[in-house]
Every structure is written in C-alpha cells, then in structure tokens.
Design goal:
By secondary structure, the protein is an alpha+beta fold. It has one domain: outer membrane lipoprotein receptor (LolB), chain A (Clam). Helices cover 19% and strands 44% of the residues. It has helices at 3-15, 19-22, 27-42, 111-114, 119-124, and strands at residues 45-55, 61-72, 76-83, 87-92, 95-100, 105-110, 133-141, 144-151, 158-166, 169-177, 182-192, 210-212. The protein has a twelve-stranded mixed β-sheet with strand order 7-8-9-10-11-1-2-3-4-5-6-12, sandwiched between helices. Strand 4 and strand 5 form a beta hairpin. The longest helix is centred in the first third of the chain and has 16 residues, at 27-42. It is globular, with a radius of gyration of 17 Å.
Length: 223
Amino acid sequence: MNSRAALLGLYLGSCVVPAAVAQAGGELDEQGQRLLDSFVQDVQTLSARFEQSLVDDNNTVIEESGGTVEIHRPGRFRWSYQEPYEQLLIADGRNVWSYDVDLEQVTVKPQQEVLGSTPALLLGGAAEVLEEFDYIGSLEDRGTTWIRLQPKDKAAGFSKIELGFTDGNLSRMIFSDNLEQTTLIALFDVMLNADIPDERFRFVPPGDVDVVGEPAVSNESGF
C-alpha cells in the first residue's frame, strides 16, 4: 500500500470513530493540547515533502499531488507542487502568489484578504493564531495523536481541521471544507527549526507570464 492509500485508509477509519471518543476529556485531550501549543509556539520553521489527496463526499479521490513545503513563522510559506503539474504557492508576508507554470499565469492577492481562519494561518501564523480556532478534542489511532479543531469564523472556507502528530511531530493533516470535500496531506522528511533562506519566500513574476491582481505594498501581513 502506498502512502496516499494509507492516509486515505486512516481518514476513512477516522470517519467511523464515535464523536464521544474525539471529544472525551482527560489525559488524551491534555496531551493533544500540549502538542498543539508546542507546534504553534516552538516551531519557527518547517520543511518537508508532502503527498496530497482531494476526496469528495463519496470518499472518491478526485486529485492527487505532491511536492515540498517550507514554512517560516510568522506569515511566510512556500508550497511547491511538482506533480501532476508544476505550481508555486508563496506567501511573502504581504502577498500570496500563485504561479501556474503550464498556464504561464500568476495570481496575486494581499495576504490579509485570502488567509483568514484557514489551515495556512494555523501552519504559518504566530502563537496567537490558536485564538481563531476552537479545540474540539483528541483521539489516538495507530500511534498517531489526532487533534480536531474548528475555525471560530463560520464564514471560513474550512469546517474542520485535523492534525496528526506521530512521535510528537506533525505528520498528517486533514482539512474538511464547506463543499464537503476533504484534503488529506502526509508529510515526510520533516525538518524543524532549520535555517531557510529568505529568498525561498520571495517571488518575482517571470517577464513572459500574465499577472492577475494587484500586490499589497504595505508592511502589514495580516498575521
């Protein structure tokens, strides 16, 4: 079984876990809260390979992709998709740039407008980001501690977020959106708090591509 299939199996298994288990108090919930606090407060940078699957409400895989991710808190990240097509998603602290290599098109939006209470905010934001989410509870499944969160903003694009920690490190993510689709992400070769050059979070559109949108020019990042 490949890693994507294994992650899908974990997701399908979690769908049948009784809600009472996920919301149970006690030591497991305390452990989950400590893992979450440590990830947000102690992790300044993260780099990893990722494999991603998009699943519809019938648990059918719609799309699979993979690449690398780099995060530098607060407010900067770089998702580099290498398959099935090449795409860059970069937040530089002011703007979010999306570059579709095949379409030769760049879309840019002010970062404060597009992130809000999203998984990107949780992964790349400062410690105060936890104030934007409600902690639902924790459960443990096959050596992974799952933490379930809901954004307080009901207008956010995601209805639920689940973070999986294995041996104390973030290894899995599940994002359920308001369209009843689910994004599954598995992380590999994770490195924490290593130096990442600032250049990795800068983006200058190539001269031969179309640019849609206007970048923000202030120093406000929204984080």
